[in-house]
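stage 2 :: seqdesign
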């Protein structure tokens, strides 16, 4: 997995494009806000807040709570409003048992140590506190990787061994030992139209998610073969493995 510092740089560089391009991330943030129940006076932290789409949706629904956004990317923090703190999601900057609710959209799949990140989340929640998150799983953008592997035996060998997003099994194993009293999850697959591999690669760069394919050099000939395979077999679409996670302290 790409380092936290490098991921933060990717997102800082992408901050100006993010809201316009990150359509599936926007949709998931709004949907997550619809699943969370906030009481008046609750203290709510959004981990990996980005431009603040999730907190904005929660404030509109529950204006009588206290909200703070946490993100490691300086560029993203400059785009949002309200109380915001620069910190890594793996080392949350809050006192133990000080928060009522933690929410997070499209963040925890970047963790280099998912068990430690979930332990940090559990530690800062009050007894009875809630952790609600949505993240992408390992199968995300599988069509892109399969098309590239089909176009180049060299890329195929590297793709098989390169770090990827966490699997559902990884997520469940990490949350089970984090210090929560219980957890639940749902998994779904969503398909998005991109039209071409070039458009997928541009989307990766403009949403800060370039780290997913970091280290892969794609020459012009390989890209042309991969594009042909992608259009023939996947009709210009890619899928996202979406994992909804709920846990209670």
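stage 2 :: out
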């Amino acid at each position: 997995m790409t380092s936290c510092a490098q991921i933060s740089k990717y997102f800082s560089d992408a901050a100006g494009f993010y809201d316009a391009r990150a359509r599936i991330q926007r949709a998931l943030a709004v949907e997550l806000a619809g699943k969370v129940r906030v009481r008046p006076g609750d203290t709510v932290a959004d981990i990996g807040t980005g431009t603040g789409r999730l907190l904005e949706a929660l404030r509109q629904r529950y204006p009588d709570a206290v909200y703070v956004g946490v993100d490691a990317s300086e560029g993203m923090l400059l785009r949002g409003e309200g109380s915001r703190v620069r910190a890594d999601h793996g080392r949350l900057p809050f006192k133990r048992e000080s928060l009522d609710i933690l929410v997070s959209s499209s963040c925890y799949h970047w963790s280099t140590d998912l068990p430690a990140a979930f332990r940090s989340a559990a530690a800062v929640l009050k007894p009875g506190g809630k952790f609600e998150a949505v993240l992408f799983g390992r199968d995300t953008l599988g069509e892109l990787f399969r098309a590239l592997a089909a176009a180049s035996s060299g890329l195929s060998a590297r793709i098989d061994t390169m770090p990827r997003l966490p699997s559902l099994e990884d997520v469940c194993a990490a949350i089970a030992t984090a210090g929560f009293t219980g957890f639940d999850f749902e998994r779904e697959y969503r398909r998005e139209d991109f039209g071409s591999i070039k458009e997928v690669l541009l989307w990766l760069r403009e949403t800060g998610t370039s780290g997913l394919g970091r280290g892969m050099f794609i020459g012009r000939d390989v890209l042309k073969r991969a594009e042909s395979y992608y259009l023939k077999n996947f009709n210009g679409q890619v899928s996202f493995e979406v994992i909804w996670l709920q846990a209670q302290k």
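stage 3 :: structure notes
- The CA atoms of residues 199 and 236 lie 9 Å apart.
- The chain has one domain: 4-141+164-193+239-248.
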